[in-house]
Hints:
The longest helix has 16 residues, at 172-187. α3 (97-107) packs parallel to α5 (142-153) and α5 (142-153) packs parallel to α6. This protein starts with a strand and ends in an 11-residue tail after the last helix. β7 (160-164), α6 (172-187) and β8 (191-196) form a beta-alpha-beta unit. It has helices at 40-47, 70-76, 97-107, 113-125, 142-153, 172-187, 199-205, 236-243; strands at 2-11, 14-24, 29-33, 55-63, 66-67, 81-84, 160-164, 191-196, 208-213, 216-217, 221-222. It has a domain at 1-89 and 157-172 and 182-246: P-loop containing nucleotide triphosphate hydrolases (Rossmann fold). The chain has 254 residues and is of the alpha/beta class. Residues 2-239 form the ABC transporter domain. This is ABC transporter. InterPro entries: AAA+_ATPase, ABC_Ni/Peptide_Import, ABC_transporter-like_ATP-bd, ABC_transporter-like_CS, P-loop_NTPase. Pfam families: ABC_tran. It is a peripheral membrane protein.
Amino acid sequence: MIEAQELAIHMDGRPLVSGLSFTVERGQIVALAGESGIGKSLIAAALVGMLPGGAQRSGTLVLDGEAMTDARLRAIRGRRIALAPQPLSSLDPSACIGDQFRWAARRAGLAGMARKAAGAASLARLGLAEETCDLYPHHLSGGMARRIILGIATVGRPQVLIVDEPTSGLDGASIGHVAGDLRRLASEGCALIVITHDLVFASGVADAIAVLSPGGFAAPMPASAFTADGAEIPDAHARRLWRATPANGMTIDA
């Protein structure tokens, strides 16, 4: 389980994100949603101790009862907690996919043949052939690259996975594959935090959705509320965002 209480991010003393509180249990998917530029990727970085220079995290972050400092997050990153980043450029263009799985397995503390076995197991969980290991990033479609990033992040079987904008630039079929991958990881007991601008995707894959706004943060709401015209969504800002999605006719509330 991972729990955040009043998590805030400041840059050079200026507040960027504040009032973020949530709990994610094993086997649960919670989506953190909001418009572009609201600070979602900063939250992803803060949750794994990777904030850029000049940025500081405050508030409480607890993983399975243990309070997490940035130093502690760095020590367990890739093992107990992991990040699947948004940029496809996070894949090394000069290395084959197999090498990148083995590097991730080494960071997760695996040794020798266990590294290769972990990479093969991660590919198998995604339904990808072992021959994928011989490919380079430029051989991959956008959808395949996203799934490989997800596989690399989970090669060490982390307890908590943060996934940043997993549907960015993908077509409908690829989005469906990614959604299936996330549900499969949750069914295996992983706690997932999915950071996304896509409320429709979030409503289909998550158990609960928390919506960020320029004025703060709405506590996680049942994903089942995000349906039809959103009348059951308790937060007004979240309701407006839901109604403004293309799937809902891009309705702008007065």
